[in-house]
Specification:
PBP_domain; D-Maltodextrin-Binding Protein, domain 2; alpha/beta; nine-stranded mixed beta sheet; signal; 302 residues
Length: 302
């Protein structure tokens, strides 16, 4: 009986030790699994920036530069400036890229969002035509002529000193920063008329799409960031009322179609969003604006 009792005790002791080891192992495995899951979640979470196709190239270059420092940033262009502002209001992104200020209607639509604009530079919007039309004599347009073109009242370039060639207008969709700059220039805050009922009029979205349409359509005209025209031999920028979209004219406000470029956040920038924006505002980040044909804060006296 003594031997039997000792064996039973030993067996019980072994069983208890095995249970402790198994329990400890289970806790360790669970801890490791939790740590891995948290690490994966942290690594997979990217700072989300979306909006203006004008601001996006600068944001994308900055994101690439910060990638080596461990900052993960996703840059998109859904819906242009208006889309970015709307997405920020809905809590879908961290930073809205915008080539226009946040409007009162945006703030009313998302009253819980504390829209804070950080200006990173400025841009000139040009009236862009084809080189064929420019070479034939169209170097300058008045505001009345631009209005006539976009309202469908001027339908042939010969009516403004150009070739005998039909005009094809590509206008930006409502909500785009470029469109708002054009409307302000032509209508001074008044509501613009509806688009003309014409086969030679179309609505376009982003800057790349607009540029592609201009280059592929004879007689085309469109509003577009002048930075997207640099180095494009088939396109030309006209002066407006005799004023060129030079850096000096934009900086002094003489050129009538310029605009600020923003990073917009919900509240003051903090954490990774602040790190991202601070980089763009820094001596390393500001040259990215020059690279894409925009003006730095220093160039506009800010």
């Amino acid at each position: 009986m003594g031997a039997t009792k000792g064996s039973a005790g030993s067996a019980g002791s072994v069983g208890r030790r095995r249970f402790v080891h198994l329990a400890t192992g289970a806790v360790l495995i669970a801890s490791l699994a939790t740590a891995c899951a948290e690490a994966e979640a942290g690594a997979g979470k990217a700072l989300q920036a979306s909006g203006s196709t004008t601001v996006a190239p600068v944001a994308a270059d900055a994101a690439e530069a910060l990638k080596a420092q461990g900052l993960n940033i996703t840059v998109a262009t859904q819906g242009g400036s208006a889309g970015g502002i709307s997405q920020l209001g809905a809590g879908q992104i961290d930073i809205a890229l915008s080539s226009k200020p946040v409007a009162d209607k945006d703030r009313s639509a998302s009253p819980k969002t504390d829209y804070v604009e950080t200006q990173i530079g400025a841009d000139a919007v040009g009236i862009i035509i084809t080189k064929q039309v420019a070479d034939a004599g169209v170097k300058n347009l008045t505001s009345a002529q631009v209005k006539g073109l976009f309202e469908g009242k001027i339908t042939n370039w010969k009516d403004v000193g150009g070739p005998d060639l039909p005009v094809f207008v590509y206008d930006k969709e409502p909500g785009r920063g470029t469109r708002e700059v054009l409307d302000k220039y032509l209508y001074h805050g008044e509501k613009p008329p509806p688009p003309p009922n014409s086969d030679n009029f179309a609505i376009v979205g982003g800057n790349l799409e607009t540029r592609n349409k201009l280059e592929s359509t004879p007689g085309a005209v469109a509003p577009l960031s002048t930075g997207f025209v640099e180095g494009r031999d088939q396109l030309a920028v006209v002066t407006l009322d005799g004023i060129a979209p030079s850096s000096e004219n934009v900086a002094t406000g003489t050129y009538p179609m310029s605009r600020p470029l923003y990073m917009v956040t919900n509240g003051k920038p903090k954490g990774e969003a602040k790190r991202f924006i601070d980089y763009i505002l820094s001596d390393k980040g500001q040259p990215l604006l020059t690279k894409h044909g925009y003006l730095t804060l220093k160039q506009i006296g800010k």
